Amino acid sequence: MKKLKELYPEVLEDVDVLSIKINSKDVEKGDLFVCTKGVTADRHDFIDDAIERGACAVVVSKDVGEKSVPIIKVEDTNRELPFLCQKFYDYPDQKLKMIGVTGTDGKTSVTTIIQTLIGKDDCGYVGTNGRSYGSFQGDNPNTTPDAHNLYFYLDEFVQHHCTYASIETSSEAFYRGRLQAMKFDISAYTNITSEHLNIHGSFENYLNCKLQLFHQTKEDGFSILNRDDPYFEQVKNACVAKVLTYGMDSSNDLQIVSYKLYPTHTDVVFRYDNQDYSIHSPLMGDFNVYNLACGVLCVLALGFDMDTIISRIPNIKVNGRLELLDTKTPYYVMVDYAHTPNGISKLLNFVHTLKINRSIVVIGQAGERDYLKRPKVGNVVVENASYAIFTYEDPRSEDPLDICHDIIAELKDTHDNFEIVVDRREAIQKAIDMAQDKDMVLILGKGNETYEKLKNETIYFNDIEEAYKAVENRKKRIG
After folding, report:
1. Which of 280, 315, 350 is the last residue of a domain?
2. Are residues 300 and 405 in the same domain?
3. Helix, strand, coil: what percent of the chain each, to 5?
4. Model pTM?
């Protein structure tokens, strides 16, 4: 709790501030309401609702007239929010070693790897899979949440006596200014391919938002870069901290000497400080060799020794990423978050190195997101999978059938190994029912997320749970 005058000394009337909110529906008595401007809403339109619900004061960026509570006017409420939250929670980001990971693919895996290698009691996590520390696991509405949530989570970590925070830093978060008050001790990137052009307008803008992480890294910190990525030089030129690299070449600080892929694990040899280390990794796929290298080098940069790191690698588990379900069936079922053309291509290429028969993919594309990506996803899936079932995936205000038609726009006259089943539950069931011995059913795009965003509501939905239900339904029908 803070006094309003602690946050804004110029106010005449002082009140207790219990929390900070940007959605009027979430406001409770004693909350400070900040009128940010979202993608589809201007919160200035909901001031009266926030006051009715108990807001003790309101922060605005335009004239709203006199109200029954103190009104604080600032130049830009969106830009104000992170600095306000930082102050309200007593600068928790400055009490933690901040580790930020960006990239088109792999952010969740790398941040989870980092948390595991440091230890969950010492390191909190914020990202697509929620937020966690110690034995606690909670929800998180965005990959990188709005500042009022993010600083609340960081304060949770401080209260739990964490020393580190491993967070996914999305391009949208930088675009919307959620992270602008923050300095990072460690920054890292996985790869960069075209994504989120609906938000950024161009690839150049998207890349520049990614590069912001490296501008905001402390000069005495470290930036961990993938030398094998095509955009390595551009990222390197943006760095102000000391650069450490990983990749296949011997010039890297952490060299990937060799690796061998198996259906359940990967054997890797890393070279660091002129010494080779043989590692048995529970992560599958060549892309996870890079994710592991990135995470390991981040933790090495923090001062941990390689022997300690290697001893913790068997504990790594990334929920909803290459998660092979224990269905006890002659066919296989895997759930993964892959939703970009690059991520899907790499995943399917890996899957076909396994001893499987056909690959059957269930996938959609999100509504109100990069529509130019949709036909690219359609092409990648049908060209690399045996069969594809296109379905809805967070359609939001868009018609899910229209989204599916966007996905197949370039396929109608060239391929016949796909169909549309709009309802995601029915699509998963259809894929499971199609599976024969040694077929692999891949349910992609959502990972372990627990929601679907529909036109007028958000419903509970989890691909992993739905897959198990579909398997049981099939078993009951055939006895």
Report:
1. 315
2. no
3. 35, 25, 40
4. 0.88
